[in-house]
Structure formats: C-alpha cells, structure tokens
Design brief:
hydrolase activity; 12 helices; Rossmann fold; EC 3.1.1.-; AB_hydrolase_fold; about 20% strand; 8-stranded mixed β-sheet; alpha/beta; globular; AB_hydrolase_3
C-alpha cells in the first residue's frame, strides 16, 4: 500500500502525459482536426465574454436556430492547451442541432483554480445572456468538460447562480458531462509534477473540489473515465458519484480501451457510447443503457457478486 501522499506514487497516478507516451500524437491530431473544423464549418472566433485577454470563446452555431447551448471546457491541468485545440469536438454536436461554445481561460500559475472557476461562471452567464445571437436556446444550457475541464463543468453544475447574480436563473446549467474528471483536488496539492504550478492551498481545495461540495440542487452529472486510466482517475469519478449520489450522478462509467486522451476522441465519433451520452444530455433525452457503473456490483458466471 502506497503512503497517501507519496510523491512518486501521486505522479504515477496523476501525470496523464507520462502515463500515455503517445500523447503528442493525440494532441497533434486534435490540432489538425480542429483546424479542419474551423475551415469547414461556420464559426465565430475569439468572441469576448469578459475583459481579460484570456476571456474569449469560439462559437459554432447549428444550421437551424433554437437548439440547445453546449459549452465545452478544455482540459490541460488548468495550465496548458487552448480552445483552438478542441474545435473538432464541436462538429458532431452542432451537426446534431446544438450551438457550441468553446471558451478559453487564464492558466496557472498566473492565476489560481478558484480564479478559473470564476472565469467559467462569467463565461456561462455570458452564454445565457447572449447565446441567442447565434440561435442558441439558453434555457437549455449544458456543459461538457475533459480532465480539468470536467472539474470546471462539475463546478458549474454546483454553482449557486442566484447567489452570484440575482438576475440569473437558479438552474442556469441543465446538466454536465465530465470526462476523466478531477473532482477531489487534495492529492494535487502534493503531486510533485504539478503542485508548484497549481499552488493549491487547503482553502482552495475546500472551495473548488466538487467532491467536497454539497450535491447540486438541480440537473444531472454524467461521469465517465477511460478503462486504461489510473486507479486514482477511476477513484475521482467514483468519489463524485458517492458524494453527490445516484440521483445527481446517474451515469458513472468506464469506457473500454480508452486512455486519458483517446477517451476524449470518442466524443467526436457518432455511435460511440460517449457521443450517445452527450446527445442524451444535450437534448434532454433518456440516457441510453450502457456499461455497468464504475464500482457497481455485478454477477459472475458462478453467481458471486464482485466489484467492477
């Protein structure tokens, strides 16, 4: 058994790039596919949602107005990547009838994670107020995020919107989809590869860990993780389900044959489980039956129950 805050163990568990040596190939694919997406589909780039230079978003409107609004929040451990690396993910959603918004945010160490959370609050409030300009129905707003972006998506579902701005609806976010999310930030205070960049404090962890917060009052969170990801990424997903409960997290699944990077690519492929979940969330449909929940008991051929 590893000591809880053993640095080498934490780095093995949480350093996704080190765990996937072929990650440059994945990131290169994303960039090329995103460039193709911007060239092939109508979009408006670098729209300001706030005053800071980092507070810009790209919009990929659907062909017909009146569709739901989807905000996709990119990952990168709050310190890397860009909205421009993720344009390709907007294509299948806008083709299905959604208006997709892909925001940027400031990166650590220039800012803290709570600062980024507030930037995303501003971004979603902006989409709520201005999304109709591109034909989006802001009354049907959902958030999808990967890795650090899944953390931010969960924070948006948990946000007390009327406390932040009394003019906003309590259920500004109808639902969220978290892909390989980080919902308990405490281990990252101690992981050598990232701790000096994130500069997390105990107060930051308490305020900005979705798994440390009360369950959201509204909406649902669909949480998935790749089957080839570390035990700690698996635990992050099951912890959110345990704390928020099955009512708020009705989907808690592992996606087979997926690592931390290839799992995101499933979102862009119609017919995959992740694409099905995204469409069900976006359009308010019943979630299709899929893989057993992470950690759920199942029956073996001998009838004995074991953990997935």
């Amino acid at each position: 058994m590893q000591p809880r805050w053993n640095g080498d163990w934490l780095d093995r568990m949480y350093n996704a790039r080190a765990a996937v040596p072929q990650h440059p190939w994945h990131l290169g694919r994303w960039a090329l596919a995103s460039q193709d997406a911007r060239e092939a589909h109508p979009c408006e780039l670098d729209v300001a949602y706030g005053d800071d230079a980092s507070e810009r978003l790209d919009v990929f409107p659907a062909d017909r107005p009146g569709g739901p609004a989807v905000v996709f929040i990119h990952g990168g451990y709050w310190r890397a990547l860009d909205k421009a690396d993720h344009s390709f993910l907007a294509v299948p959603l806008r083709n299905a009838g959604a208006c997709v918004f892909v925001p940027n945010y400031a990166l650590c160490p220039a800012v803290t994670i709570p600062d980024i959370v507030l930037q995303m609050v501003r971004a979603l409030a902006w989409v709520h107020r201005h999304g109709a300009r591109w034909g989006a129905d802001a009354q049907r707003l959902v958030v999808i995020g990967h890795s650090a972006g899944a953390h931010l998506a969960a924070m948006m579902l948990a946000c007390r919107w009327t406390a932040w701005d009394a003019t906003l609806p309590a259920q500004l976010v109808r639902g969220a989809l978290g892909i390989s999310g980080l919902y308990d930030l405490e281990p990252l205070m101690h992981a050598p590869f990232i701790r000096d960049t994130l500069r997390l404090t105990p107060d930051d962890v308490a305020r900005a860990s979705p798994a440390w917060l009360p369950p959201p009052r509204h909406g649902r969170m669909l949480a998935v993780v790749g089957a080839e990801e570390s035990a700690e990424f698996q635990r992050q997903t099951t912890t959110l389900r345990r704390v928020w409960g099955e009512r708020r997290v009705p989907v808690c699944e592992t996606l087979p044959d997926c690592n931390h990077f290839s799992v995101l690519e499933q979102l862009s492929l119609p017919g995959t489980r992740l694409h099905q979940l995204a469409l069900a969330l976006t359009f308010g449909a019943r979630v299709p039956r899929g893989q057993p929940a992470v950690g759920a008991p199942r029956v073996t051929s001998t009838g004995a129950r074991r953990r997935c």
